[in-house]
Design brief:
This protein is of the alpha/beta class. Helix content is 36%, strand content 26%. A six-stranded mixed sheet has the order 6-7-8-3-9-10, sandwiched between helices. Strand 1 and strand 2 form a beta hairpin.
Length: 233
């Protein structure tokens, strides 16, 4: 479904990504791993159109999107859960969700508020609370729910559980497992390797703006040297 082909991305004159290539198949969960500052977030931003690549190509569902604007890419079926959540602080949980609700692909059973509240019961309890009244974990649930309300085929998560309490992290991973079982494709960045290995089939590791390794969970799980070299602190 998603094909990123040898993209180079720059911030001004400073190059951040060097020939990055990756794929995500329909219904597949894939991770993007590596230490901080290695280009993972820039890769996500390049896919969604926030930092368009200068060279290379990105295809989604067979269409070239590397020159498309972000709102066009979102309407095609890519939902983003950005690092830092970026929910609307002066809107309630309910308003945050309905503000982004859309069904541009006209699917028969689009996500509704009840679906989000079933996935994250805490949000149902706080539906009238403003964004700035929520905990970090609740804001992350809301950010995921907001992305689902555009009815994506592919969900991008940048730092899915960073800074969250263990109980909240487990709730996030539970929800992502449910979405996986429903057939939603997911590309996820996170530092919780055990949780990622439990949910994802394939993995990419980045270092200094390049993909330096790719393989399956069966390849990565036993390779402690590889983990220590590129992922460990």
């Amino acid at each position: 479904m998603l094909h990123v082909r040898t993209i180079d991305t720059f911030y001004g004159t400073s190059q951040t990504l060097f020939g990055v290539s990756l794929t995500v198949a329909d219904g597949e969960v894939v991770t993007l791993l590596g230490r901080n500052g290695m280009g993972k977030s820039t890769t996500i931003k390049s896919i969604i159109g926030l930092t368009p690549p200068r060279h290379g190509a990105i295809f989604f569902a067979g269409r070239a999107i590397e020159k498309a604007e972000s709102h066009v890419i979102a309407r095609m079926g890519i939902g983003l859960v950005p690092e830092g959540r970026q929910i609307f602080p002066n809107l309630t949980v309910h308003e945050n969700l309905v503000a982004t609700a859309a069904n541009p692909r006209r699917i028969d059973r689009p996500y509704a508020l009840d679906d989000i509240f079933a996935l994250f019961p805490r949000l149902a309890e706080r539906r009238r609370h403003f964004g700035n009244q929520l905990s970090g974990g609740e804001q992350q649930m809301l950010a995921i729910g907001r992305a689902l309300m555009i009815n994506p085929r592919l969900l991008l998560l940048d730092e899915a559980t960073e800074g969250l309490a263990p109980l909240v992290r487990r709730e996030i991973w539970r929800a992502l497992a449910i979405l996986k079982d429903k057939g939603l494709a997911i590309l996820v960045i996170d530092k919780n390797l055990d949780a990622l290995l439990a949910i994802a089939r394939r993995h990419y590791i980045m270092e200094k703006g390049r993909i330096v390794w790719t393989g399956t969970t069966a390849d990565l799980r036993p390779d402690r040297d590889l983990q220590a070299r590129y992922i460990g602190v």
